[in-house]
Design goal:
Bound molecules: zinc ion
Strand order of the largest sheet: 2-1-3
Number of domains: 1
Helix content: 40-55%
Strand content: 5-15%
Number of strands: 3
Largest sheet: 3 strands, mixed
Radius of gyration: 15 Å
């Protein structure tokens, strides 16, 4: 079982990122640590929460793949948010927050995944964002969800919580 992150799942591409279930947990762990340390604006925090929702302990192993075009990009702040996501990828390469993990991720694997993920993120342009991806995502969230409650953080890991809790604690 594995998860796939692609640019647009309906179009097969050799840049698709395939990871084992265990690998996916590590991938999300390190992105969420970096993103939670770097996010400042609401749209940046939302993107980190979206990644943290890829929580296999809650959604199911092998069921958390996603497409870059369906991320909740905000067209109003798109260029800034895309730069932010590249910074988050760089932060993961630089091991931001890894001291909070109770294991040591493989630097080799993380670098490989981050290079592929960066290639995918770099491909997104404002006209490629899936229609209504942001509004659909926002309307699926309950009023009591963290994105509407000032983005609370895990007391242990310092990362943004999702409607499932802390992605790192859960996995
Ligand atoms: Zn935690």
């Amino acid at each position: 079982m594995s998860n796939m992150i692609s640019f647009n799942g309906t179009i097969a591409s050799d840049t698709d990122l395939h990871m084992s279930n265990l690998g996916t947990n590590v991938f999300i762990n390190v992105l969420v640590l970096s993103g939670s340390a770097l996010a400042q604006t609401e749209s940046e925090k939302r993107l980190v929460v979206y990644l943290a929702e890829k929580d296999q302990a809650k959604i199911g192993r092998g069921y958390v793949g996603f497409d870059i075009v369906e991320m909740p990009w905000d067209r109003k702040t798109f260029e800034q948010d895309k730069k932010f996501m590249i910074k988050v990828i760089d932060g993961a390469r630089n091991k931001i927050g890894w001291e909070k993990l109770d294991y040591s991720p493989s630097k080799t694997f993380v670098l490989h995944w981050m290079n592929l993920f960066e290639t995918l993120v770099n491909k997104i342009t404002i006209d490629k964002i899936q229609d209504n991806s942001l509004n659909d995502w926002l309307s699926e969230s309950e009023a009591s969800d963290p994105i509407y409650c000032n983005f609370p953080r895990c007391k242990i890991h310092g990362v943004f919580l999702t409607c499932f809790g802390c992605q790192i604690c859960n996995n």
